[in-house]
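User: Continuing from earlier, I have the next pair ready.

Assistant: Great, send them over.

User: Here they are, in order.

Assistant: Folding the first of the pair now:
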Amino acid sequence: MRCLSCREEYEYEEANAGTCKECYEEASETEEELKREIDDLKSKLKFLTTRSPVDPHNPNNSSSSLFTDVLLVASDEDDCGDGAPSVPAHKAVLVSRSPVFRAMLKNEMEESRSGTIRISDVSYEVLCSFVHYLYTAEVTLDEQMACELLALAEKYQVKHLKAYCEKFMKSKVDVENALITFAFASQHNAEHLLEASLLVVTDNMDKLTKQDVYKELIDKDPRLIVGIYEAYLAKKDNTASSCSLPQNPS
């Protein structure tokens, strides 16, 4: 029998069918080595992970605010009054995750002096999930949470979170939400989401031009409608060109 790995002939053994003994043992050693490397990486990750000061599943109870030195406050909570719920955090974590936070806290800005950062146009729950992600790179998403976190991630230049939300939203694009998703992606410079939603839009122009959101876009942002039609016409031209190509003789 011929080995699938080294292509050498060998005597058939049921235990390692398709692979000679030498290649089978080498593969087993490689597998064990990779397992040890994975375990080592998991151990390092656990050691380096900073415990989040907030539990996004229960925002009203801080899991650990020990040694936190800055507070983030959602601006739509009680008009940012003194009684508004705040999310504790560590400046060192914020500046390492976001260049915007780094600029705020490094320079003598109000946020640096007061130890309070007011986050506009975000709910307390979303802010908790945002801060938790900065510590753990983990978040539970639904479509609304993904939208709000993507906008927040773009504002504070947290690229990893933005990409994570964008990937989630791409998986949810369909005929019903393609137009509004396209408008959202355009507003927040989400290129991959923009391409995915535009593809669905141009494939279903006859249906989507009848939607109320399409009529609203004509009034609110005609630039987007122009972009849609440019993409649609370009797609039709490419399809027509492909169909008109001479066929290869059989």
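And the other member of the pair:
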Amino acid sequence: MTDAPDKAAAVMTERQKKWFATVQANFETQSGRSLADWLEIMKACPETTSGKRNAWLRTQYGLGANHAAYVLSQMPGAASWDDPEALKAALWKDADSLTLHDAVIAAASGLEGLVVAERKSFTSLSKDVQFAAMRPLKGGKALLGLKLEPEASPRLTAPSRREAWSERLSAVVELSDPSEVDAEIADLLRRAYARG
């Protein structure tokens, strides 16, 4: 996180806030170096994408995934949790996919304590824990993952690949038009939220 802890806190659940505070408080002790040292090391990184940089830190220096993500979030110009609009703009570039994103958020908006958090590769919907997430697909579509079993609706299927979001989201539905974000999708979001 950079200099905007209040903005970052707005897109984290209480559980995430505690976890992140622990990562920050113990970072130097657990990683063996100061954040400034890690940022200096990153200047030599040959990789250009976030995922590959994370993997480089892990393989070259043995840094854990969470600590590597923390280092990357502190790099100059890095899009991070404290800039959700930049993350959203970078991920949801396609106007049609963005319309689907907004329709899903609107369908979930009445859920008490809803935390919508933009990430680098998906948008997370949480209360205490993540109960839904979505990512854009090619062609102006979006994939919505839910903390439900695929049998909960004929529209749901099991994921065809491992997603970046929580493994607890064991059902997905592909959306291609905002009209598909209907009363049934709103109900599925409520049911996934209730399971949280």
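Worth noting for the second one:
The chain has two domains: 5-73, 85-195. The chain has eight helices and five strands.
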